[in-house]
Design a protein that fits this description.
Number of helices: 6
Largest sheet: 6 strands, mixed
CATH class: Alpha Beta
CATH superfamily: CNF1/YfiH-like putative cysteine hydrolases
Strand content: 25-35%
Order of helices and strands: EEHEEEEEEEHHEEHEHEHE
Helix content: 10-25%
Distance between the termini: 27 Å
Bound molecules: zinc ion
Radius of gyration: 16 Å
Length: 218
């Protein structure tokens, strides 16, 4: 397990906790990060926007900033929350990767976007994945599965009902983008079978029940 549950019930990645210029946490159904962060109207797309452009109705699925005293977040319930940090340029990003966004490459597109905007080099980046639905529970039909052929070229079962590991898909996209595998913290608990601590859309179908993954520059 690459995340640790702290005494306040929030989950943290030791990889990001080692960075004294930022704060971060993955909230649960039972523990919410402190208020005071920017969050988007998420639409299962691939666009990253800068926090300086933020407004309450902005539709996108990734946020980035280099501004001190700014906290940004994504909300999920099964989708993969990805927090990115560049310790060299002091840039952070929060990415919402559901199955559509994952298959459309939001992880790679976000790395490219912060490279273009801030000059972040992929090899410098740290990444941490929060709790999301695991391959234990994420069954897909062929309509969805076929979108993962490019990410899992070794698989020949995506044309029938099967399971997909969204976390692994995003990990591969980040490695293909140039991230060092040792700088990617993945392996968080499954939201669907992980118990009442986590919201799961697939399990509960409860509108508005979301968990917040927050990262901020101090
Ligand atoms: Zn599961």
């Amino acid at each position: 397990m690459t995340l640790r549950r702290s005494s306040d019930g929030l989950w943290q990645s030791p990889l990001l906790s080692s960075q004294n210029w930022l704060s971060h946490s993955f909230g649960t159904a039972e523990a919410a990060p402190a208020d005071g962060y920017l969050v988007l109207h998420q639409v299962h797309g691939t666009q990253l926007v800068d926090a300086s452009e933020w407004h309450a109705h902005l539709s996108a699925d990734a946020l980035a900033t280099d501004t001190p005293a700014t906290r940004i977040a994504v909300k999920t319930a099964d989708c993969v929350p990805i927090l990115l940090a560049d310790p060299v340029r002091k840039v952070i990003a929060a990415v919402h990767a559901g199955w559509r966004g994952t298959a459309a490459g939001i992880a790679a597109r976000s790395v490219a976007a912060i490279g273009k905007r801030y000059g972040c080099r992929p090899a410098d980046l740290l990444a941490a994945f929060g709790p999301s639905i695991g391959s234990c529970c994420f069954e897909v039909d062929p309509d969805a599965g076929q979108h993962f052929r490019a990410i899992f070229p070794e698989r020949n079962d995506l044309g029938r009902r099967t399971t997909v590991d969204l976390s692994e898909a995003n990990r591969r996209l980040l490695v293909q983008s140039g991230l060092d595998p040792s700088r990617i913290a993945h392996g968080a608990p499954c939201t669907c079978c992980g118990g009442a601590e986590f919201h799961s859309w697939r399990r509960d179908r409860a509108p508005g029940k979301r968990m917040f993954a927050v990262i901020g520059i101090l």
